[in-house]
Queue: 2 jobs
Job 1
Amino acid sequence: KKMKKEAKVLSQKLLADGIYDMWLETPFAGDVRPGQFVGVYPANKSTLLPRPISICEVDTDRSAIRLVYRVVGSGTAEFALCKEGDQINILGPLGNGFPIDVAKGKKVVVMGGGIGVPPLLETAKRLSGEDVSAVMGYRNSETFLSDEFAKYAKMYIATEDGSVGTKGNVIDAMKAEKIECDVIFACGPMPMLRAIKAYASEVGAKAYLSLEERMACGVGACLGCITKTKEIDDHSRVHNARICTDGPVFDADDLEM
Ligand code: FES
């Protein structure tokens, strides 16, 4: 069983409107797989459950992980106030992460939407050397992290307002830029993931989707993250999976969505 651990805040800054960028020193940095997340505990003791936050990047030299997160409530608002040198309690690494090895020698596309963008950065980094494209979707010209993806991947941007890149969503950018893919790793809101599942089956690609946006506690306690999957055993019954403990990454073919 994972234990709560102390982590030291190395730095924190505002990255975009309501989105923060925090580096934490933690002993488990070297064990992290891309697509995994941590549970961050608010200091307020009346709040017992941690907040799940995906891991954006790892720096093993500093034994550090980077969290890029949106402030959505009192817990995340509290994290945003943390400063260099502060200690916070975290649990992790949690979840399964993306199966990077399936992309060896293939054309791979990492796709992120909104606050689903961050976990794809470490994913792109671990894939560098492969034929990797990054297609990231944003609301507007606040295309946070996009310059960092360009270090590891051919970078494409879609924006809802058309201010940068293709006007529309990540699928519109795939089509407009004629990006080929054998394997997709994606994270973002459910409508985007549904569209990616449909697109992957249309073009004959494999897709692995992180459903982390649907998590609440991240540790199996709230049951707010139940999702339907196709039965993996022989009984072909609908199987209820918990995103936080069985995922957050699923093979799109296994999901009913
Ligand atoms: Fe709470 Fe999965 S997020 S049980």
Note: The pocket of FE2/S2 (inorganic) cluster is lined by residues 215-218, 220-225, 242-244 (CB under 6 Å).
Job 2
Amino acid sequence: AHLDRVAEIDGKVHAFLHVAAESALAQARAIDERRAKGERLGPLAGVPIAHKDVFTTSDMPTTAGSKILQGWRPPYDATVTRRLREAGLVILGKTNLDEFAMGSSTENSAFGPTRNPWDLTRVPGGSSGGSSAAVAAYAAPLSTGTDTGGSIRQPAAVTGIVGMKPTYGGSSRYGLIAFASSLDTPGPFARNVLDAALLHEAFSGHDPMDSTSIDAPVPGVVEAAKRADIAGLRVGVVREFDSEGFQAGVVARFHETVELLESLGAKVVELSCPSFTTALPAYYLIAPSECSSNLARFDAMRYGLRVGDDGERSAEEVMAMTRAAGFGPEVKRRIMLGTYALSSGYYDAYYGQAQKVRTLIARDFEAAFHQVDVLISPTTPTTAFPIGERVDDPMAMYLADLCTIPANLAGNAAISIPCGLADEDGLPVGLQIMAPVLGDDRCYRVGAALET
Ligand code: GLN
């Protein structure tokens, strides 16, 4: 049924870069047979899933949305991919994304944009826009994403679904094509909180193949999603992300949600996190710096595309021609910005300063979590914007991540859940719930309570 749905809508939505219909059907049949033999299978066995095309898959292409990886076949599965398979999830195919996960709209994909199923003239968010659109369009009940600055929560918010960024290190980066290694975090998309928790649990947990993976038990996210009771829970509203510059319909739904939390027995207080306002500029130094280092591996020798290799040209010339042809404008912009910020004369002024800001943001979270159990804000300042509106204005594009970036810089857990539609455009609004490091279960507990 899901493959039929993909065939029906994907010409319009373009959520997928690759559909693996035959292998998906074969896997589904294999699960059926195991079940028929009486084998006890996990809760997600046989459930279809759409997989972001930034995770390596040994049986499908992996492009990261870039021409530079076109034609490349990874020799191994990412840890997340492997754990999906072990849980019996059926991978329907690979989803579209902004090139190397750099963007907020999926318009930076080298293979064309994805459209928002709610309104095909609007973006589905990004960078995991193919994954959010697939779930919102009922082409898959679940999908995977990665969140470096908001790329799970922001697309979830603007397509009206649930998207979770686990604690940094709680889900493995092994086989995830790197953008900014100190920030990149795999996480789940689903249409409800419990489904997201089940997927979160299925692929999370310690991985010796990732040196930043946390060696601790996965927080009890499924239990928390089932508990769904928040009487007495202390909720902090982040003053810095309340109202100013936000779309009226987003603010209205957010304030209603605050009232709903109070009616469910939560104690809501307003809190200031003063450094959060500096998170966006700090992120746009740190993320490009790490990107400029990570993307150096695309040297025309090791992976995918090679341009101009006529036996006469030098390796440097081939490298330059390959990168010129293989990287899109946003990726080039970030490599240049990052290289500049890391250069010896400017390192302290830019990268060093941004790292200090990062520490201040982590301290704001720590101080806040002495007073409250979770922090809340709108996930994004606006609903889904029209395709094309922000492509030539990187600053406007970057603002989509205003509220999501603090949790990335500090490594905290944070979820986006739907909280109604904006009056002025009828488009989905997201609520962000932020929790301490390894407090992922709190995100699910509050999210599930609001859902019921
Ligand atoms: N939109 C942000 C960026 O372009 C975040 C992307 C992400 O989380 N992968 O960097």
Note: The first strand starts at residue 16 and ends at 19.
